[in-house]
Specification:
Number of domains: 2
Bound molecules: ligand BES, zinc ion
Largest sheet: 9 strands, mixed
Shape: globular
CATH superfamily of the largest domain: Zn peptidases
Helix content: 25-40%
CATH topology of the largest domain: Aminopeptidase
Number of helices: 13
Number of strands: 18
Oligomer: single chain
Radius of gyration: 23 Å
Length: about 450
């Protein structure tokens, strides 16, 4: 183990240079214009995994973007099998003019590498690839390793469920490890024990057959943008911050007193969030703490809205169409598909005459809780403590990683969510970056994890 860690230290400059190449590939999964780039990224990973000595390296086509798969077996017949999961696809870069340096030519400033995908998730995937390279250089692997790196996580992993079902045998393992989350704070590593799910819909409202003069037609003709705003406003109570879609909270598991106490024990201050996002007040449900709102309560948020005149200046127009993208973060025991049905029923009930509304289910993920017990979790806690020199904390996350619930449901194995990002690293936002100190510590921690889990 020490040899591998020392090797990684001597190779740090090369590791950073290789990461920079990976970050230069614009593997934006949601945009069809980038389909060839996503494929290129999968092919690059394949070549790279072959170059470090991985076996059975394959780029596996799916009806969408390809998966990258690789294995390496330990000579020890009793070695446990660990499945590493990560994603090489990234979010769109817009608004592009807010990037200080271009999103796909990575730049190091102040010990951080800036690029789309730096922290979410290419940088963290590369942590494990470099940990495995370092282990393969120095001794036989203490574990059997399987790598599954997907290209559709940021669009809800639409083809992964069927894949995991069909290949359940091949993917069999003792535990899964994922690095696609954040540490609790700089210098404070964490293991994530819960992720929220997601239901993401698009609402389209159509009214008159064409855009109209807002004076010549305004008044009697129902305005689709107004109707859309009314529909959205009808989903939440402004006083309490509660979502008022009928049945929405029916399957929400109440945060237990113990969970609340665990959240409180982390000593989180609202001032940290206010300072991070530079606003002067927080919203949401008025009877919940900030960590509860982020980790164990559902949300409903408009992610995008459009229709009518959007260019500078004024144009008097009554638009014929309006559109909104709405995401709902879900908590146990909500199911993504059920929540979409509830929303559709609500929309049908509140749609005014004069417009037609369609709700399209774009993608989803079910929420998941993972156990903090077990051999793999203990190995991860030990690895983090040895590397960061403080005990890790257990926390939940507000974001979603669809595969984690699938692994637990389909494979029945525990997942270790050991992230090296920071929540302030602008994931999904301009100027995404990854702290290079955490990149290198992550490699060390991953090497220790793979060794400890075999002990
Ligand atoms: N790495 C994130 C998940 C995450 C976000 C973990 C914040 C911890 C903190 C992941 O890549 C992601 O963004 N997932 C999507 C999934 C969705 C499209 C189904 C998300 O949460 O929006
Ligand atoms: Zn993401």
């Amino acid at each position: 183990m020490e040899h591998s860690i020392n090797y990684a230290k001597t190779q740090s400059a090369r590791f950073e240079a290789e990461l920079s190449t990976l970050l230069s590939i614009p593997s934006v999964s949601t945009d069809e214009a980038n389909t060839a780039d996503v494929q290129h990224c999968a092919d690059w990973l394949r070549e790279h995994l072959l170059s470090i000595g991985m076996e059975s390296v394959q780029v596996i086509p799916t009806p969408g973007h390809p998966l990258v798969y690789a294995e390496h077996r330990s000579p020890n017949p009793d070695a446990p099998t660990i499945l590493f999961y990560g994603h090489y696809d990234v979010q769109p870069v817009d608004p592009i003019d807010l990037w200080t340096t271009p999103p796909f030519s990575s730049t190091v400033r102040d010990g951080k590498v800036y690029a789309r995908g730096a922290t979410d998730d290419k940088g963290q995937v590369f942590v494990h690839i470099k940990a495995i390279e370092s282990m393969l250089r120095h001794s036989p692997l203490p574990i059997n390793i399987k790598l599954l790196i997907e290209g559709e996580e940021e669009i809800g992993s639409p083809n992964l469920g069927p894949f995991v079902e069909q290949r359940a045998q091949q993917l069999q393992c003792h535990a899964v490890v994922v690095s696609d989350t954040a540490m609790f704070a700089p210098g404070q590593p964490s293991l994530v024990v819960g992720l929220r799910g997601l239901a993401y819909v698009q609402i389209d409202v159509v009214g008159p057959n064409r855009d109209l003069h807002s004076g010549a037609y305004g008044g009697p003709v129902v305005n689709p943008l107004n109707a859309l705003c009314d529909i959205i406003a009808s989903m939440k109570d402004r006083g309490t911050g509660k979502i008022v879609i009928e049945g929405f909270y029916d399957s929400v598991r109440e945060t237990t007193t113990q969970e609340k106490a665990e959240f409180d024990a982390l000593g989180y201050q609202d001032s940290r969030l206010l300072a991070d996002v530079q606003t002067n007040a927080l919203g949401g449900e008025n009877d919940r703490s900030t960590l509860e709102k982020l980790w164990s309560r559902p949300t409903l948020d408009v992610n995008g809205i459009g229709g009518g005149y959007q260019a500078p200046g004024a144009k008097t127009v009554l638009p014929s169409k309006a559109m909104a993208k709405v995401s709902m973060r879900l908590v146990p025991d909500q199911k993504s598909a059920d929540v979409v049905e509830l929303l559709k029923r609500h929309v049908a009930r509140v749609t005014p005459p004069g417009v037609t509304v369609t709700v399209t289910d774009l993608h989803g993920a079910n929420p998941v809780l993972v156990s903090r017990e077990g051999k793999a979790m203990n190995a991860a806690a030990q690895a983090l403590q040895e590397t960061f020199e403080v005990p890790c904390v257990y926390q939940r996350e507000g974001g979603s990683i669809p595969v984690v619930e699938m692994f637990s449901r389909i494979l029945g194995v525990p997942t270790v969510l050991m992230g090296f990002g920071l929540s302030t690293e602008n994931l999904h936002s301009p100027n995404e970056h990854f702290d290079l100190g955490n990149f290198h510590k992550g490699i060390e921690a991953a090497i220790r994890f793979y060794h400890h889990v075999a002990e």
